Amino acid sequence: MRERLMRFNFLTRFLTKIMLNILLIFFSLQFVLIASFESSEILNIIGNVFDGKLNEEEVKKLAEEISLIKEVYDVEINEEQIRKIAGDIAQINEQNGGYWKAKVNYYSLLPEDEQKRICGVQNNGRSKNGDAKPEFPILEKLANNDDCVTEIEFDARENWPDCSSFINYIQNQGRCGSCWAVSTASAYTDRSCIQRSLNGLSTSIDDPSLHFSSTDVMSCSIDYDGCEGGWPSKAWQWIQSNGVCTGTDHVWNNGCKPYPYEPKGKAEQVKCEAECKNTDWTTEYSEDKHLGIFE
């Protein structure tokens, strides 16, 4: 009797495991089917709106960005919205005389309130904590030379090819109005690379010591939450006076102070600290600083 009971219990557990595995496979297939349906639907919408104006790679990238926005912001982007954005971009391209070409990108697809959230440049007046806009000397306006009729095209990536990977890279600032700090740190990184190239030094984008920290700028050049906005001009002044440490984007997560915010999730305030946040980084914060004068 006891042996039969043990066999029964074993059989029951065995069948239960089989049923659980079947259910797991079923729900996994359902998820895949739903995801495939949604991806197919997005691709159809893009195809209807742009009607062959985008190549296969551009269509795929746009579909991925729409899916990411849905995942991060829980926002459905419908065909009407994409048509409006596409119409606005077409109008821009008609008005710019063909000098450059605007395209649909991740940021143009964001909800309006999220677009405002990440636009953190303070152009005038005072910041949210009352800080006044920094004063800078106004350069004299240069008179136009009527004899100069030559149209000049300048691409920094072509002019300094050793630094094209740096110049061409755009860091994702996440859900934080830190564009004023991210752009300044990125421009400083580019200019540092250009100077190194002119001096015959290494300009490898794979070297984390050649990337400079927007986190250091964002958290230390002002005395309030850098996600609330700031001034690029003040950031440049701070770098010149205090120096900036190394730090890559969130994905690479390298250097002394890497960027803390991923594309999704709330951006919590980062405090200014005179130490590296990356515990694997062997250079001390004070020694890692680079001043605004390029070596």
TrEMBL record:
Keywords: Hydrolase, Protease, Thiol protease. It comes from Meloidogyne javanica (Root-knot nematode worm). Residues 150-295 form the Peptidase C1A papain C-terminal domain. This is Peptidase C1A papain C-terminal domain-containing protein. Belongs to the peptidase C1 family. One of its GO terms (molecular function) is cysteine-type peptidase activity. SUPFAM superfamilies: Cysteine proteinases (SSF54001). InterPro entries: Papain-like_cys_pep_sf (IPR038765), Pept_cys_AS (IPR000169), Peptidase_C1A (IPR013128), Peptidase_C1A_C (IPR000668). The lineage of its organism: Eukaryota, Metazoa, Ecdysozoa, Nematoda, Chromadorea. GO terms for biological process: proteolysis.
